Amino acid sequence: MGWFVVLLYLIHSLLLFHFPSYTFSLCNPHDLSALLLFNNSFTVNNTIVDHYHPWYYHCPTNVSSKIVSWNKNTDCCKWDGVTCDTMSGHVIGLDLSCSMLQGQFHPNITLFHLTHLQQLNLTLNFFYGDIPSSISHLSKLISLDLSFNYGGIDPYSDELGMAMRLDPSTWKKLIFNASDIREIFLGGINMSSINESSLSLLLNLSSSLVSLSLPGTGLQGNLPSRILYLPNLQQLTLSGNVNLRGQLPKSNCSSKVFGSL
Q1: Burial state string for 126-155 with b = 16 or more CB within 10 A and e = fewer than 16
Q2: Where is the Leucine-rich repeat-containing N-terminal plant-type domain (predicted)?
Q3: Quick check: pTM over 0.90?
Q4: CA 246 from chain center: how many Å?
Q5: In this predicted model, what pLDDT tens digit does every residue of 40-51 receive, in sequence order?
Q6: Is 87 exposed, middle or buried (CB count within 10 Å of its CB: 0-12, 13-18, 19+)?
Q7: Percent of the chain residues past pLDDT 70, beyond the cut
Q8: How does residue 241 score in pLDDT terms, banded at 50, 70 and 90?
């Protein structure tokens, strides 16, 4: 593989020598197109940052949307929030947290065409609507954070009405396809239709899951106690789910599990 890196370097050097104005772009063309279409499907809303969204206290001071740096004529691997594989140019990380993005998720959202994504962070924006089943195309995910998106309205007054929603079918596909996922953060997502049977699917992640955060998601029914025995689970947060029932085992659960139940 070392010879391939040397070859790329030589090609890059020759291009710069013969074409001084040439700019080498690492970004994969397919991923570039998917990012641009995703960008065009949402708006940046600066007017609701301070007025409606209490979680913005957790965002950096003088926060600005990361997508303002996105220019189709530049290498997408250099855009704010984008991380690429240095060999293939595929986008493997996307962090658009605190970016003031607003809009509804649609079934044909191109974000989920980024099938090499390993880390996806969309927390603290204003997305709403059903999370499409195409999220399961992200089979290489290691970390997923969609928490605290409320469509630009006050979450305290509307509860889960304008939150993003995750149905059992999409949940099942995500768990089975992203079988190496280590971190799942879905705080504030409407998961009220996810029952005990659906939660039990997390047992399929026994070899990978480290952090599970589902506060204020409207979970109800019984919590499968076997989740507490997942061998690698270190953090579990289920606070704010007043209709979720269960009892912590007296012994034999993982001593590493901590968090808010």
Answers
A1: bbbbebbbbbbbbebbbbbbbbbbbbbbeb
A2: 29-43, 66-85
A3: no
A4: 28
A5: 999 887 766 555
A6: exposed
A7: 75
A8: very high
Both tokens assigned to 115: 């099938």
Q: What is the CA radius of gyration of the chain?
A: 20
Structure tokens at 57: 């206290």
